[in-house]
Design a protein that fits this description.
4 copies of one chain form a homotetramer. By secondary structure, chain A is α/β, with parallel strands linked by helices. Chain A folds into 3 domains: about 170 residues, Rossmann fold (3-Layer(aba) Sandwich); about 130 residues, Argininosuccinate synthetase, chain A, domain 2; about 40 residues. The first copy, chain A, contains 14 helices and 14 strands. The model of chain A has no long low-confidence stretch (mean pLDDT about 95). At the A-B interface, helix 5, strand 11, strand 12, helix 9 and helix 10 of A face helix 5, strand 11, strand 12, helix 9 and helix 10 of B. Chains A, B, C, D: Belongs to the argininosuccinate synthase family. Type 1 subfamily. Chains A, B, C, D: It is an enzyme of class 6 (ligase).
């Protein structure tokens, strides 16, 4: 254990873990100064009273970084443009937030001349990787402290005992809870009964951003989203900045039972884990964006972009945001997004999102050509030649096979 | 136009198109013998009375090929194992049926010594390609006749006039309808108001295999599916053969508003088109299979298989079933399916399919390792080393960048 | 056949084919005006005397388009940056030239108000596709005439007879020859004895841009190439513009037996064909560029770029240059090329290109870290943790397998 | 450090490292029994006298595993069938050998009831990963000891001092040397002056399996290889088993300066490293196999297989041989190899391998169709239709763009 640590920047949430860590760091590192830093990516009420709590539990300073707009504009929208999804269904809510918070920690650490950055992530999860990769990208030699990987506190109860023993002033209750991660894009739930994939989630206990389809209204809600270059700019005809638009979609989506997923995923650190995710607004945005792309991207681009979306999702999930490959794939996605302009009307009803109309000044859909009727731009007889050449390898193979059998 | 055609096998549906074609072929090819062939892939009532109709309108013979079991076992299930999907959402219902019907046509043509095969596909669609590629695979030199690409009848009205003029005995009505394709896996709808992507589909007029989510029951239905090597073998504990299982799922899925999609797709022949597809049972099967794979496939296999599923979907869509690449990808999928055994419980409710429990004797999910608690198989401190090496390229790049700036 | 054609732009090479075509077009289209256009992409001596010949054989006008710089800067270098290769070995020489010539034809056709564009490509090859796709991209409604696909002249002898009959003034000899395509990047050879893959090429008769390894000097030549953002800017310390640099590399490469390939390739139109290609300078450039990328791109980027290079090569080969996907992939390649700066020293010897030293201000190679000795940036013990997590899926699978066997 | 270790299986090479390790293990683990195991994958003379040396330096037992045939048949040939290559050029010689040796170690460890397996790999390399993943696949709970990652001996000199101090009887010389790895497939060289990519390799000092092109004969050598299902079965008409064939190719390839590569590669553990590899016979095999595939695989299969070869190479390089994905990709490659039958004639000359004739009973190359002349199977006019449909997306885009500009 590196010893000459005088000042530590701590990624601070105000929960049990990071409160205990302040004390633990002081004890285990010769009483260093602790700078508590909280990055606001839309976790809302969780942020209230943090400064007071941090100072009371031993931090010398507290920074609240307002990262909400940057989170939406600089991370979420570029991922939307790339159709980043992990393992078909996960919209990457936790993964999206980590790089920008990690960079925020480095900014403060450099400004404060800190010797180390400490985070409260478990040693079994993805977030430790995501935070640390962001730190390495901007401060490759920064010392990183991850107490959960090494300390003697092995459970929530251990932590509470430690807190009580050291008079750490916390409202403590010994009830356990799902492990959660919240931001403007999503809310995740892990642990407890969810750890067995045989258990159906108790959604009514779990959900916070919205309701189940069963509890959603019996009449549909229609909304209309406008996109410019792959980015949503207006909801129901009203121009809005990204964050506000997303909040409005969370509201309407949550109310209609949209965007609840339950999955077993493959963590980067080698294990499978199970989580329930709420992404009401994000799910609507992805669907609308995908629909708009079906009329504004040509086939070859759409098809190749499917592979890019998978790769982009993997990069994000693995914390590889600040990397040359992610940046190059964003250049690709930016280029393809130049024509992703237009309006998508959606019907939301009890968990379902249905297209109610797509239009675009850049549409590549030609009603005339698609129609069963005649048209000038398409000579049906061209198909005969097309099929003969497209099928030539099949024909040749069949001919050669026939020759062999003789 | 090739002239010495004495016997033609006609892919016969009994509709206006193929009824008119019998007469048209006789007229345009010096009165050849017409063998009408109908491949039964589960289009049900459409098949009744076909023989009588065929003979009455001029065919000399009629064959009804029962392809239902082969369709399910030899085409659908291999595609399910490969997770074949086209453009993220289309479950390939029409594409699935074409190769097996095409091969059936060749079998009869060879048996009957026919000179040509005729089909009633439009020159703008995918089905002409799919039929003809299947034909080329088994009879590379077979002459193919596709009247829609060349004849003078340019619309339904032209056809009806032609039929009346030639006393073709049909129950004719001049109402137009959506263009449909039906089989045991799905029902598709194209044309009319659907040709403008701005129009929301009139689902209540369109749907036949089920109802909209709005019209589905207010209480959920739970089902349980058992898989062996990637293939469904039992529903709610009852062993069933593939076709019966699929029919039962169509029933329960349709009732619960499952599997309705509305999409603009890219046809192989170069245009975008818009369709509404009903695939109630298929959608349930794909979802269940995907869920089961999340616990029975390892990460690397799952991730690579995403790309294979896309490719497999493209091959199917493009009619490339009887090809070496499709066969090799099936060998891949068969191998990965060896461990895809187990049971998936699902909740169906107004268009939503939700996991209600997954279990497998081959599960790779380890509750012990995934858990937040301690365990023997995973040393949390290993993460530190993992992250340092996984992040080494980022660190090196940051270090080299820093050096350059000096 | 469309009849009201008054003015035709003809892609003119001055060879037998296009000379005959002038007469044939006049005869078959009611004596239209013929504008002969020749695009100079470095085919050199083939271009001399073209204007005179065109006018003498019936053209009313002749345009010589100097496309050499644009060819190198706007097509070749972007492809080099993307590592575009077709089927592992083909450096796409013919494919590179077609889009830019096709666009040149459209430019003249629009300027001249022509009704049609005519090209002399065979109906079995790729070039017809490449030309026509470029034309469609800029003049989607332009009428295209491709006589080889329809005329009655089925062989070289037929053409010569036709020429003699119509007094077309040509130096005609009845010797046949390999079919060739030449530009500043390459020279291709097809036909005759090459049509049987069993025949070893008679290289001494075939080669024009250089010699065989056997005939190359017995002592090696060393050269040094400097790159900026993925583009070669200097040879042996001398800054040169792209075309001059390429010509110099052709000279030294050809002399040393570099860049001769013999391949059976898959044409877009469905058949396999066999060709011998000379690309002396291009082969050196690709090798140097690849070597430089090994120290300036990080692993993830390098690995993903392998797939991009394959796709880019397919797009080029298939004539899909002026397409959204190609442009988006170029945006990707441009981004990755930002760090591809530095110098590569190469030894050329009898067909071999060997690295003799690579250096870059943007190198990601760290001798300190790679070294077998100790260093501060890499703690060898980190590997233990890395391997445990990287191998966790293998361990879990083995554990679950063991459990099953009990 | 785990302490209750009574019996250790040591991967033993007889070199300085593993000789010192016997003593070091005894000292650091309370005098455990050491079982030395050497896996023979064709490293030849390195294996002589190993048993005596092992016992003399403290091992209680010595096993020599003859893995040569299994290495060639079970690892190398399946990789050849999949075209496994790492980063375009590396033929994976070291990576190929590790899984089979790793499994051999486990077999002995289980048979002997050992508590741990020890290997002599450095903590900076790939081989530690490859060995340990193979061990985990068959003995997930086996304790693994990797002294280089932890011990106090930081250099060759430290080791020699340690050996002298403990009277370990070795022929010791203090000269340093390139780090090498040898087997029947290849010989690798790393370290010393090679650690700087600016240094041209001193090939005359380095090469052991063959000579440089400069030192190769002035006249070419012709050879003929016969393949069955993707596997070489005969050389110059003589049927041979895999290992003998490979040895014969190493001989003729090495003599002709074939298969020398110099590369900077990306190690799995995050760093770039530089190596020189000799793979004379392997390079010939890969080239012959690739040539044969150009006439026996159809385009779609060939193109998709390019991506599979890259993935397969990455899996191998990363030690992921005993994994479900590798096995599934082998199922794919086995299927594609069913038609890879035939004969390839090659000319070897000073580092160059040139095709001198390819033939196959399963050829898909049709001289008739490829020819410039007329044929019955291909109607040139089909191209017009093909191009119109293939180019339809380009045309539609151009039309829509034109409409927008109005």
């Amino acid at each position: 254990m590196k010893k000459d640590i005088k000042k530590i920047v701590l990624a601070y949430s105000g929960g049990l873990d990071t409160s205990v860590m302040i004390q633990w760091l002081k004890e285990n590192y010769d009483n260093p100064e602790i700078i508590a830093v909280s990055g606001d990516v839309g976790q809302a009420d969780e942020l209230e009273g943090l400064e007071e709590k941090a100072l009371k539990t031993g931090a010398s300073k507290f920074y609240a970084l307002d990262l909400k707009d940057a989170f939406v504009e600089d991370i979420i929208f570029p991922c939307l443009k790339a159709n980043a999804v992990y393992e078909n269904v996960y919209l990457l809510g936790t993964a999206f937030a980590r790089p920008i918070i990690g960079k925020g920690l480095v900014d403060i650490a450099i400004q404060e001349g800190a010797d180390a950055i400490c985070h409260g992530c478990t040693g079994k999860g993805n977030d430790q990787v995501r935070f640390e990769l962001a730190i390495k990208a901007f401060a490759p030699d920064m010392h990183i402290i991850a107490p959960w990987r090494t300390w003697e506190l092995k459970s929530r109860d251990d932590e509470i005992e430690y807190a009580e023993k050291h008079n750490i002033p916390l409202k403590i209750n010994r009830e356990t809870n799902y492990s959660k991660d919240k931001n403007v894009w999503h809310l995740s739930h892990e642990g407890l009964d969810l750890e067995d994939p045989m258990n159906e989630p108790k959604y009514d206990d779990i959900l916070e951003m919205g309701v189940t389809p069963e509890n959603a209204p019996d009449v549909p809600t229609y909304i209309e989203l406008e996109f410019e270059k792959g980015i949503p700019v207006a909801l129901d005809g009203k121009k809005m900045k990204g964050q506000d638009l997303l909040l409005a979609l969370n509201e309407v989506g949550g109310k209609n039972g949209i965007g609840i997923i339950d999955m077993v995923e493959n963590r980067l650190v080698g294990m499978k884990s199970r989580g329930v995710y709420e992404t009401p607004g994000g799910t609507i945005l992805y669907k609308a964006h995908e629909l708009l792309e079906t009329i504004t991207l040509d086939k070859d681009t759409q098809h190749f972009k499917q592979h890019v979306g998978i790769k982009f999702g993997e990069l994000l999930y693995n914390g590889l945001w600040f990397t040359p490959l992610r940046e190059a794939l964003s250049a690709f996605a930016d280029k393809t997004s130049e024509t992703v302009n237009g309006t998508v009307k959606l019907k939301l009803y009890k968990g379902n999102i249905t297209s109610a109309g797509i239009s675009s000044p850049d549409t590549l859909y030609s009603e005339q050509i698609a129609s069963f009727g005649e048209d000038d731009s398409y000579d049906q007889n061209d198909s005969a030649g097309f099929i003969n050449l497209f099928g030539l390898p099949i024909k040749v193979k069949a001919m050669q096979d026939a020759k062999k059998q003789k």
